[in-house]
Specification:
Blueprint: E1 5-9, H1 17-30, E2 35-39, H2 46-51, E3 56-59, H3 65-77, E4 82-86, H4 91-98, H5 100-103, H6 106-109, E5 113-119, H7 123-135, E6 140-146, H8 156-159, H9 162-169, E7 174-177, H10 182-191, H11 195-201, H12 204-223
Parallel strand pairs: 1-4, 1-5, 2-3, 2-4, 5-6, 6-7
Length: 226
Amino acid sequence: MNAPIVFVSGSKGGVGKSITAMSVIDYLVTNRKFVRLVESDGSNPDVWKSYGKVVESEGADLDDVEGWIQLVNTCDAHPFKAIVVNTPAQNNMGVRAHGAILRDSLNELGRPLITLWVINRQRDSVELLKEYMELMPAGVVHVVKNGYFGEEAKFELYDKSPVAEAVLKQNGKSLYLPDMADRVTDELYSKRMTLAEAAQQLKIGDRTELQRWRTAVGGLLASIGL
């Protein structure tokens, strides 16, 4: 198989898709993997603003059929680069309308589709995930519980849902993304730094907190074979 397509989604705003996509790029680059970013969050392109200058990148409108065709063609043109797709809020609408273009191309592309579905503790996160899995049965879905919304035990609504069982049945994992101190995330977003740049430029206490987080997240991503 060629390098994976990593689809970072959650289909709602504010769940932590951007920091998850940033952590994926950081992990792949740190481990000397070739990466190309597809930024489809046109209204809030935080990932592109931080990483567009250090990895190959392009924008794509995944609310439109042209964007999905572009995504597939990009995957075909760069088979040995991991394609990290950062999606916008309400992306399930685009998946519903046009996701079959990617789904039906996967065999010919010869690339695995890995979805990282970021959730908070609200019911609609689970409902949107259920819909996504029905719309995009290809590939594997891993659920990312964002620790910003509380400790892992507090995600019981998802843990006790039939959706959690469905994720396990298709070899997906439930991952707990640890929280990072607000002052560090504020620095990342306000200065548009990559995680690697922040690890060099922040004050020592902030760097220590960031490195703790990067190490923990690296372990999570290694556990799913990235």
